[in-house]
Amino acid sequence: MRIISLNANGIRSAERKGFFEWFEQQDADFLCLQETKARTHQLVDDPAFTRDGYHDCFHDARSKKGYSGVAIYSREQPDEIRTELGREDFDCEGRYIEARFGNLSVVSLYFPSGSSGDERQQYKFRIMEWFAPVLDEWLNSGRDYVVCGDWNIVRSELDIKNWKSNQKNSGCLPEERDWMNDLIDTRGWVDTFRALKPDTVEYTWWSNRGRARENNVGWRIDYQLATPSLRERLQSCSIYRDERFSDHAPFTVDYDA
DNA sequence: CGTAATACG
Protein backbone atom coordinates (compact mmCIF):
# COMPACT_ATOMS: atom_id res chain seq x y z
CA MET A 1 0.00 0.00 0.00
CA ARG A 2 1.59 3.21 -1.20
CA ILE A 3 0.40 6.66 -0.10
CA ILE A 4 1.70 9.89 -1.63
CA SER A 5 1.05 13.27 -0.08
CA LEU A 6 1.76 16.72 -1.48
CA ASN A 7 0.88 20.31 -0.76
CA ALA A 8 0.27 21.16 -4.41
CA ASN A 9 0.34 24.95 -3.99
CA GLY A 10 -2.45 25.11 -6.57
CA ILE A 11 -3.57 21.87 -8.22
CA ARG A 12 -4.10 23.68 -11.53
CA SER A 13 -0.56 25.03 -11.41
CA ALA A 14 0.85 21.60 -10.49
CA GLU A 15 -1.14 19.98 -13.28
CA ARG A 16 0.27 22.44 -15.83
CA LYS A 17 3.75 21.53 -14.59
CA GLY A 18 3.14 17.84 -15.30
CA PHE A 19 2.32 16.62 -11.82
CA PHE A 20 -0.23 14.04 -12.90
CA GLU A 21 2.11 12.53 -15.50
CA TRP A 22 4.63 12.10 -12.69
CA PHE A 23 1.95 10.73 -10.38
CA GLU A 24 0.89 8.05 -12.86
CA GLN A 25 4.45 6.69 -12.85
CA GLN A 26 4.49 6.29 -9.06
CA ASP A 27 2.22 3.24 -8.73
CA ALA A 28 0.44 4.82 -5.78
CA ASP A 29 -2.73 3.49 -4.19
CA PHE A 30 -3.63 6.83 -2.63
CA LEU A 31 -2.77 10.46 -3.29
CA CYS A 32 -3.52 13.17 -0.75
CA LEU A 33 -3.29 16.78 -1.91
CA GLN A 34 -3.45 19.99 0.08
CA GLU A 35 -3.79 23.60 -1.06
CA THR A 36 -5.63 22.70 -4.24
CA LYS A 37 -6.64 26.39 -4.40
CA ALA A 38 -9.65 25.70 -6.56
CA ARG A 39 -13.36 25.34 -6.18
CA THR A 40 -14.57 21.75 -6.53
CA HIS A 41 -16.61 22.60 -9.64
CA GLN A 42 -13.39 23.82 -11.33
CA LEU A 43 -11.94 20.30 -10.93
CA VAL A 44 -14.67 17.67 -11.12
CA ASP A 45 -15.75 18.34 -14.68
CA ASP A 46 -12.25 18.88 -16.06
CA PRO A 47 -10.64 15.67 -17.41
CA ALA A 48 -7.21 17.09 -16.46
CA PHE A 49 -8.07 16.34 -12.81
CA THR A 50 -9.79 13.00 -13.35
CA ARG A 51 -7.27 10.19 -13.62
CA ASP A 52 -7.91 6.81 -15.24
CA GLY A 53 -7.92 4.09 -12.63
CA TYR A 54 -8.52 6.46 -9.71
CA HIS A 55 -11.51 7.73 -7.82
CA ASP A 56 -11.27 11.33 -6.65
CA CYS A 57 -12.88 13.52 -4.03
CA PHE A 58 -12.44 17.17 -3.14
CA HIS A 59 -13.25 19.61 -0.38
CA ASP A 60 -12.88 23.31 -1.07
CA ALA A 61 -12.95 26.50 0.98
CA ARG A 62 -16.42 28.00 1.14
CA SER A 63 -14.97 31.12 2.74
CA LYS A 64 -12.59 32.31 -0.01
CA LYS A 65 -11.99 31.60 -3.69
CA GLY A 66 -8.66 30.11 -4.73
CA TYR A 67 -7.80 29.31 -1.12
CA SER A 68 -6.85 26.12 0.75
CA GLY A 69 -8.72 22.99 -0.39
CA VAL A 70 -7.87 19.28 -0.14
CA ALA A 71 -8.26 16.19 -2.32
CA ILE A 72 -7.83 12.42 -2.25
CA TYR A 73 -7.30 10.11 -5.22
CA SER A 74 -7.65 6.37 -4.63
CA ARG A 75 -7.52 3.20 -6.71
CA GLU A 76 -10.26 1.68 -4.62
CA GLN A 77 -13.69 3.22 -4.44
CA PRO A 78 -14.22 4.69 -0.97
CA ASP A 79 -17.09 3.36 1.14
CA GLU A 80 -17.61 6.87 2.47
CA ILE A 81 -16.24 10.41 2.15
CA ARG A 82 -16.22 12.83 5.10
CA THR A 83 -15.47 16.54 4.83
CA GLU A 84 -16.93 18.05 8.00
CA LEU A 85 -15.78 17.79 11.59
CA GLY A 86 -18.55 19.95 13.05
CA ARG A 87 -16.63 23.17 13.64
CA GLU A 88 -17.80 25.83 11.20
CA ASP A 89 -14.70 28.06 11.24
CA PHE A 90 -12.62 24.98 10.33
CA ASP A 91 -15.02 23.18 8.00
CA CYS A 92 -15.55 26.32 5.85
CA GLU A 93 -11.84 26.52 4.99
CA GLY A 94 -11.54 23.23 3.08
CA ARG A 95 -8.85 21.73 5.31
CA TYR A 96 -10.01 18.14 5.82
CA ILE A 97 -11.23 15.27 3.72
CA GLU A 98 -11.39 11.62 4.80
CA ALA A 99 -11.94 8.61 2.56
CA ARG A 100 -12.92 5.32 4.20
CA PHE A 101 -12.06 1.87 2.84
CA GLY A 102 -13.15 -0.95 5.14
CA ASN A 103 -11.23 -0.40 8.38
CA LEU A 104 -8.82 2.08 6.79
CA SER A 105 -9.26 5.85 6.82
CA VAL A 106 -7.06 8.03 4.64
CA VAL A 107 -7.15 11.72 5.56
CA SER A 108 -5.84 14.71 3.61
CA LEU A 109 -5.32 17.57 6.06
CA TYR A 110 -4.22 21.15 5.57
CA PHE A 111 -3.50 22.49 9.02
CA PRO A 112 -3.70 26.29 9.41
CA SER A 113 -0.67 28.48 8.87
CA GLY A 114 -0.06 31.32 11.30
CA SER A 115 2.54 33.12 9.26
CA SER A 116 0.33 35.86 7.87
CA GLY A 117 -0.23 37.54 11.23
CA ASP A 118 -1.42 37.28 14.82
CA GLU A 119 -5.08 36.83 13.89
CA ARG A 120 -4.25 33.62 12.00
CA GLN A 121 -1.79 32.46 14.65
CA GLN A 122 -4.53 32.75 17.28
CA TYR A 123 -6.82 30.77 14.95
CA LYS A 124 -4.10 28.13 14.59
CA PHE A 125 -3.80 27.86 18.40
CA ARG A 126 -7.58 27.48 18.74
CA ILE A 127 -7.59 24.75 16.07
CA MET A 128 -4.73 22.97 17.84
CA GLU A 129 -6.68 22.89 21.10
CA TRP A 130 -9.84 21.62 19.44
CA PHE A 131 -8.19 19.15 17.05
CA ALA A 132 -6.11 17.14 19.56
CA PRO A 133 -9.22 15.46 21.05
CA VAL A 134 -10.50 14.77 17.52
CA LEU A 135 -7.23 12.96 16.82
CA ASP A 136 -7.64 11.06 20.11
CA GLU A 137 -11.06 9.89 18.98
CA TRP A 138 -9.59 8.61 15.73
CA LEU A 139 -6.78 6.91 17.63
CA ASN A 140 -9.25 5.15 19.92
CA SER A 141 -11.76 4.29 17.19
CA GLY A 142 -10.23 0.91 16.38
CA ARG A 143 -9.80 2.05 12.78
CA ASP A 144 -6.50 2.32 10.93
CA TYR A 145 -5.80 5.96 10.12
CA VAL A 146 -3.20 7.64 7.95
CA VAL A 147 -3.45 11.41 8.38
CA CYS A 148 -1.52 12.94 5.49
CA GLY A 149 -0.87 16.56 5.19
CA ASP A 150 0.73 19.89 5.67
CA TRP A 151 0.73 20.40 9.44
CA ASN A 152 2.66 23.71 9.30
CA ILE A 153 4.69 22.71 12.39
CA VAL A 154 8.20 21.28 12.73
CA ARG A 155 9.01 18.83 15.54
CA SER A 156 12.69 19.33 16.26
CA GLU A 157 16.03 20.71 15.23
CA LEU A 158 16.27 17.92 12.63
CA ASP A 159 13.27 19.36 10.82
CA ILE A 160 14.48 22.87 10.07
CA LYS A 161 17.66 24.44 8.75
CA ASN A 162 17.55 27.65 10.76
CA TRP A 163 16.47 26.34 14.14
CA LYS A 164 17.77 29.16 16.30
CA SER A 165 16.53 32.08 14.23
CA ASN A 166 13.02 30.62 13.86
CA GLN A 167 12.12 30.14 17.53
CA LYS A 168 9.71 33.07 17.40
CA ASN A 169 8.32 32.27 13.96
CA SER A 170 5.06 30.47 13.27
CA GLY A 171 5.61 26.79 12.58
CA CYS A 172 8.57 26.59 14.95
CA LEU A 173 7.07 28.11 18.10
CA PRO A 174 7.79 26.05 21.24
CA GLU A 175 4.06 25.64 22.01
CA GLU A 176 3.42 24.41 18.45
CA ARG A 177 6.29 21.94 18.63
CA ASP A 178 5.17 20.74 22.06
CA TRP A 179 1.68 20.14 20.67
CA MET A 180 3.00 18.20 17.65
CA ASN A 181 5.40 16.16 19.79
CA ASP A 182 2.66 15.41 22.30
CA LEU A 183 0.55 13.84 19.53
CA ILE A 184 3.43 11.53 18.68
CA ASP A 185 5.39 10.95 21.91
CA THR A 186 2.46 10.91 24.33
CA ARG A 187 -0.77 10.22 22.51
CA GLY A 188 0.68 7.53 20.25
CA TRP A 189 0.54 8.76 16.66
CA VAL A 190 3.39 7.46 14.49
CA ASP A 191 5.41 10.03 12.53
CA THR A 192 6.05 7.53 9.75
CA PHE A 193 9.01 9.38 8.22
CA ARG A 194 10.76 9.83 11.57
CA ALA A 195 9.97 6.25 12.65
CA LEU A 196 11.73 4.95 9.55
CA LYS A 197 14.52 7.55 9.51
CA PRO A 198 15.32 8.55 13.09
CA ASP A 199 18.31 10.76 12.26
CA THR A 200 17.75 11.88 8.70
CA VAL A 201 17.63 15.59 7.93
CA GLU A 202 15.21 16.14 5.06
CA TYR A 203 12.76 18.92 4.41
CA THR A 204 9.38 19.09 2.71
CA TRP A 205 8.98 22.85 2.25
CA TRP A 206 11.18 25.74 1.21
CA SER A 207 10.18 29.39 1.12
CA ASN A 208 10.07 30.74 -2.40
CA ARG A 209 11.71 33.94 -1.23
CA GLY A 210 15.41 34.36 -1.85
CA ARG A 211 17.33 31.21 -2.68
CA ALA A 212 15.85 29.00 0.01
CA ARG A 213 15.43 25.93 -2.15
CA GLU A 214 18.81 25.94 -3.88
CA ASN A 215 20.45 26.49 -0.48
CA ASN A 216 18.21 23.81 1.09
CA VAL A 217 16.93 26.26 3.70
CA GLY A 218 13.88 24.13 4.40
CA TRP A 219 11.37 22.88 6.93
CA ARG A 220 9.81 19.43 7.47
CA ILE A 221 6.18 20.39 8.06
CA ASP A 222 4.44 17.69 6.00
CA TYR A 223 3.74 14.37 7.67
CA GLN A 224 1.92 11.10 7.32
CA LEU A 225 0.78 10.34 10.86
CA ALA A 226 -0.44 6.78 11.33
CA THR A 227 -2.17 4.88 14.09
CA PRO A 228 0.06 2.44 16.05
CA SER A 229 -1.76 -0.39 14.28
CA LEU A 230 0.21 0.53 11.16
CA ARG A 231 3.63 0.71 12.81
CA GLU A 232 4.54 -2.91 12.08
CA ARG A 233 3.38 -2.46 8.50
CA LEU A 234 5.78 0.42 7.81
CA GLN A 235 8.14 -0.42 4.97
CA SER A 236 9.84 2.65 3.56
CA CYS A 237 9.40 6.29 2.82
CA SER A 238 10.95 8.88 0.58
CA ILE A 239 10.74 12.61 0.11
CA TYR A 240 11.17 13.39 -3.56
CA ARG A 241 13.80 15.82 -4.74
CA ASP A 242 11.45 16.94 -7.47
CA GLU A 243 11.06 20.72 -7.51
CA ARG A 244 8.85 20.92 -10.56
CA PHE A 245 5.39 20.96 -9.08
CA SER A 246 5.23 22.96 -5.87
CA ASP A 247 7.14 24.76 -3.13
CA HIS A 248 6.56 21.55 -1.12
CA ALA A 249 8.07 18.15 -1.96
CA PRO A 250 5.83 15.15 -2.65
CA PHE A 251 6.53 12.25 -0.31
CA THR A 252 5.64 8.60 -0.29
CA VAL A 253 5.17 6.06 2.45
CA ASP A 254 4.90 2.34 1.72
CA TYR A 255 2.96 0.12 4.11
CA ASP A 256 2.69 -3.70 4.00
CA ALA A 257 -0.56 -4.75 2.38
C1' DC B 1 8.15 35.47 -4.57
C1' DG B 2 4.26 32.10 -6.47
C1' DT B 3 -0.59 31.09 -6.80
C1' DA B 4 -4.79 32.77 -7.96
C1' DA B 5 -7.71 36.60 -7.42
C1' DT B 6 -5.95 41.23 -4.26
C1' DA B 7 -5.07 37.85 0.01
C1' DC B 8 -2.34 34.45 1.63
C1' DG B 9 1.42 31.57 2.64
UniProtKB/TrEMBL annotation:
Tell me the Pfam families matching this sequence. Exo_endo_phos
Site label Interaction with DNA substrate, positions: H248
GO biological process entries:
base-excision repair
Q: Which InterPro entries match?
A: AP_endonuc_1 (IPR004808), AP_endonuclease_F1_BS (IPR020847), Endo/exonu/phosph_ase_sf (IPR036691), Endo/exonuclease/phosphatase (IPR005135)
Q: Which positions does the site annotation Important for catalytic activity cover?
A: D222
The record places the site described as Transition state stabilizer at: N152
Q: Which UniProt keywords apply?
A: Hydrolase, Lyase, Magnesium, Manganese, Metal-binding
Q: Where is Mg(2+) bound in this sequence?
A: N7, E35, D150, N152, D247, H248
| PANTHER family the UniProt entry points to | AP ENDONUCLEASE, DNA-(APURINIC OR APYRIMIDINIC SITE) ENDONUCLEASE
What name does this protein carry? DNA-(Apurinic or apyrimidinic site) lyase
Q: What broad taxonomic lineage does this protein's source fall under?
A: Bacteria, Pseudomonadati, Pseudomonadota, Gammaproteobacteria, Lysobacterales
